[in-house]
Amino acid sequence: MPVSNSLKEYREKRNFKKTPEPNQNGNQEDSHRFVFQKHDASHRHYDFRLEVEGVLKSWAVPKGPSTDPGDKRLAVPTEDHPLDYIDFEGVIPEGEYGAGTVIVWDIGTYKNMNKKDGKTISMEQAIEDGHVKFWLEGEKIKGGYVLVRTKMGGDKKWLLIKMEDEEANTNRNPVDTEPKSVLSRRSLEEIADQMRNEKY
Ligand code: MN
To answer: Measured in angstroms, how far is the CA atom of residue 92 from the centroid of ligand 1?
Structure first.
């Protein structure tokens, strides 16, 4: 099913679901999920997705996340994805949107760290404002990160930056040293081979 259709369906469900649930006004204790999906498309990149208000807000990060606060990693906003895409691994066939192999490089939960005058700002609002702070609890990636929208490229260029905290580490380079999926423990190549073999 094309992503646009599933999201449309999702939105319909969401509006339906919204009625009985009170608005949570960005409860800080609320933890939601995040994922970095490594995607071997025409250009290899990492799709960073944050669960926000029932969808996966998404950015393509060509170099993946850094644990060094001195690094600024380009992050380009992409389409919202439906929540159930969060643990997708496999091969998207040629000719389809996002064709190529995908693995779940890291997955976990995050906490909203956006505050103004002591009050929590919702993730949706922070994204709208172009300045988003969150604490990630993944297997490879932990600690505070900030996503900031720059004035370059007509809102299309954001930066993903590690914050200075106890999880900051200038010596680690997990993108290179821990390349495999945290779910299947396989590499992109192994997933692609496995799918090829299953076909025959
Ligand atoms: Mn992608």
So the answer is: 10
